[in-house]
């Protein structure tokens, strides 16, 4: 019950964060300024995490999110075109959530089985191609979750990304979350004091399985710090 409540609370936080992110990053939402940002960053995350996850990056759970902005007709057109992608539907679940009355929405795609890297990258590319074709503004991000056997997985990942640490947080359960800025990644959000962040890494001990999970997000992690059973199949 406690875990279910946490998931609901975190879901609400994600929606609020999506609104704030979309509003505060309107200059980055213009489609002509960020070609294939998600696909570029996703390819790097796959490369960096493949050897860190116990069963490889393909067995991890990948969540891709875009904040989009446009008139109602454009948003509906985007939804119809994305839902028509049969290959994407076989590999994951696509959901679209309205964020506000200002014609903003959040698109969330979650893989539901062993992930094919090429198909995932192709979906990211095709989605952004649709955004550009329809003429809407967008900004995207990725979160990947899976179990790791390395106690220093976060340190290894930060090293691979040549990341400069911006912030560090440890909660009562022992979950450690760190935010970095890597020049290798295209995405970025303001982190205060004139700093930017584009890579968040968390390590969390799973209560039920006892395993150590590695959660990575660019530019930030969305959702809670748990790994679903699907992610470990």
General description of the model:
The chain is an alpha+beta fold and 233 residues long. It is 34% helix and 30% strand. The protein contains six helices and ten strands, in the order H-H-E-H-H-E-E-H-E-H-E-E-E-E-E-E. It has an eight-stranded antiparallel sheet, sandwiched between helices. A two-stranded antiparallel sheet has the order 7-8. Helix 2 (37-49) runs antiparallel to helix 5 (117-134). The chain is globular and about 50 Å long. Residues 1-35 have low confidence and may be disordered.
Provide the fold topology:
Elements: H1 2-24, H2 37-49, E1 61-69, H3 72-83, H4 86-91, E2 92-98, E3 104-111, H5 117-134, E4 137-148, H6 153-160, E5 164-170, E6 176-181, E7 189-192, E8 195-197, E9 199-205, E10 212-218
Antiparallel strand pairs: 1-3, 1-4, 2-3, 4-10, 5-6, 6-9, 7-8, 9-10
Brief summary:
The chain is an alpha+beta fold and 233 residues long. The chain contains 6 helices and 10 strands.
Relative strand content: 25-35%
Please tell me the overall pLDDT. Answer: 82
- Spans of at least 5 consecutive residues whose pLDDT stays below 50 are 1-35
The oligomeric state is single chain
Q: How much helical structure, as a percent, in the residues?
A: 25-40%
Span from first to last CA? 24 Å
Q: How many beta strands in the DSSP annotation?
A: 10
